[in-house]
Design brief:
Helix 1 runs antiparallel to helix 6. The model has no long low-confidence stretch (mean pLDDT about 85). The N and C termini lie far apart (about 60 Å). Helices cover about 50% and strands about 0% of the residues. The chain is built from six helices and no strands. The chain folds into two domains: about 1-90, no CATH class; about 100-130, no CATH class. By secondary structure, the chain is mainly alpha-helical. It has helices spanning about 1-15, 20-25, 25-45, 50, 55-65, 70-90. Pfam families: DUF7575 (PF24460).
């Protein structure tokens, strides 16, 4: 299931950088990659008036292709490819997080941080057993001697 999620995250990031990170709930990276991509679109693609002046979708595509230089195409593809690779590796759990990476409890199945209010892992949906309190004292049995 993890590899399927990783493929979906990578594929979404190819279509629109940041979408794959949103799928795996890595919100900061989703906004950063979406912002980078939209900034590159605004900088390198021809103005919207020039594109919308075309009479058909084919002419719009030709206008965009002719109006974008090779550096602009490289920048757009680099952001999309880097976002796809990053989302895929993050969905697979790379870099592996050590035991000191989280402050709270972690899932015994996937190792990601848990929400203490839930009875299941919201990452991999593993059902969790309720934690036993160590503060409770065991009842003392009295045996006659």
């Amino acid at each position: 299931m993890t590899w399927l999620r990783a493929l979906a995250a990578g594929g979404l990031s190819v279509l629109f950088p940041g979408a794959g990170h949103a799928l795996i709930r890595d919100w900061l990276r989703a906004f950063v990659f979406a912002g980078l991509y939209l900034s590159a679109v605004a900088i390198f693609l021809p103005p919207a008036e020039q594109v919308t002046a075309a009479e058909s979708i084919t002419e719009m595509g030709e206008t965009v292709a002719e109006g974008t230089d090779s550096i602009g195409q490289f920048a757009l593809m680099f952001v999309a490819l880097f976002a796809a690779i990053d989302a895929t590796f993050r969905a697979l759990g790379f870099p592996p997080e050590g035991p000191d990476a989280t402050d709270g409890p972690t899932c015994p199945e996937c190792g990601k941080e848990l929400d203490e209010d839930l009875e299941f892992c919201h990452w991999c949906t593993t059902r969790l057993e309720p934690a036993e309190d160590d503060d409770q004292e065991e009842p003392v049995s009295t045996r006659p001697d």
